[in-house]
Amino acid sequence: MLAVLDWFLTVLHVAIVLAVVFLWIPRSTWRWHGWLVAVVAFSWLAIGLFKGAIGYCVLTDLHWRVKRARGATHLPGSFLKYVADSVTGRDVSPALIDVVAAMVFAFVCVAAIVRARQTRRRSSP
After folding, report:
1. Which residue, among 73, 54, 53, 55, has the nearest Cα to 64 in the 3D structure?
2. pTM score, two decimals?
């Protein structure tokens, strides 16, 4: 059962990352993207401040609990680093991962705001 949950959380995590990066593009999904970005920002910032770590991810916390229950050790602080290490076979710098994640997230936030303004202008009389 833990293996299935681990697999599910991996797929969910990747889907959320891809959605945050790309759902601002189609007009039909910009509202969903806005909500998703707000939830991610809330986790990274608001809950992160409460937990004592900016960038805290509720989903990563849950995912790592499942992985530890399956016997995994030495898990990195972020899912993105875990994926980067897994894909490249190297120990990618956590600072690099954090900077790239912050830059991409800032870009998609701005893109979402611009898209929302464009859409509202077109729909207003």
Report:
1. 73
2. 0.88
